[in-house]
Amino acid sequence: MTQAEAKKIARERMKGYCRVCPVCNGKACAGEVPGMGGVGSGAAFTANVEALARIRLNMRAIHDRKTADTTAVLLGTSYAHPIQCAPMTGVAYNMGGAMSEEEFELALAKGSSAAGTLVWTGDGADPAMFEAGLSAIKAVNGQGIAIIKPRAQDEILARMARAEEAGVVAVGVDIDGAGLVTMALKNQPVGPKSFSELKELVAATSLPFIVKGIMTPDQALLAAEAGAAAIVVSNHGGRVLDHTPGAAEVLQAVSRQVRGRLTVFADGGVRHGADVLKLLCLGADGVLVGRPMAVAAMGGGEEGVAGLFKAMQGELVQSMLLTGVGSLKQAGPDILFT
């Protein structure tokens, strides 16, 4: 199945929730939350895409590199490439419900595994959503990361224990989910976490702990001081706070603050392999892809997800070769046109 075929099927299956636009920039679905859009004016979703689009690559084709190695070491493990599947839930109220939550998460997990990378699973208003993600991770021998909403401490700790039992690679909290409209509508309280609360969560597990939703250097430093193993520079896809900058706009400053102390992931607006290279050059170690993976899963299942990973990895290789980058370690600011 081609990506075009998967998108065509997804467009029908997600009708009324996602238009599967030729350019996924958040403009047609602005304010559609629940749904696939960005909260309020949709400016934060659009900012992610536009921030990446403004970044240019320096083309250098006079060099002796004939191949490009996309191997990435993340949280101590080597993967085929630095691209991973972002955590997503709420198939029924965000995507139209043409698939069950279990089918959706399994497609993401198996497609990610087939592509030599990890799936990240999420948490939602219905407890079954978190469990569907854990079941999917179990199906791929634990090759996944479980992310939990910023609920009350005891609720998070209970879910962390369930994730550990499932054999996940790492656990974490998407603190950027503190303002999710969908959680509020379903009477599932979430909110910001204090530094002491964050430290408590980190200390409660032997697994690497990830803080997702970092958008400023000072918050990155707090995550590092709390003992986190990784952060994700992310504004939750523009779904929680209107008018934030795009993740690519803040990534370099955030990464500089904590680089060498923890692993830095980034997401938001990634559509092509060239976008992946841009984020790596700005200081990310790994990159998460959300909405395009949802479309691939809805339109092509496991095959669609694996196919999208393969296509993006191929684009990454092409971008590396044409910028003189032989391995991911060579990706730096000098590759970017300023």
From TrEMBL:
Residues reported in the UniProt entry to bind glyoxylate: R239
Pfam families: FMN_dh
Cofactor(s) the record lists: FMN
Alphabetical list of InterPro entries matching this protein: Aldolase_TIM, Alpha-hydoxy_acid_DH_FMN, FMN-dep_DH, FMN_HAD
Active-site positions on this chain: H236 (proton acceptor)
CDD domains: alpha_hydroxyacid_oxid_FMN
GO MF term list: FMN binding; oxidoreductase activity
Positions bound to FMN: K212, S234, H236, D267, G268, G269, V270, R271, G290, R291
Domain FMN hydroxy acid dehydrogenase: 37-338
Keyword annotations: Flavoprotein, FMN, Oxidoreductase
Family label: Belongs to the FMN-dependent alpha-hydroxy acid dehydrogenase family.
UniProt protein name: FMN-dependent alpha-hydroxy acid dehydrogenase
Organism lineage string: Bacteria, Pseudomonadati, Thermodesulfobacteriota, Desulfovibrionia, Desulfovibrionales
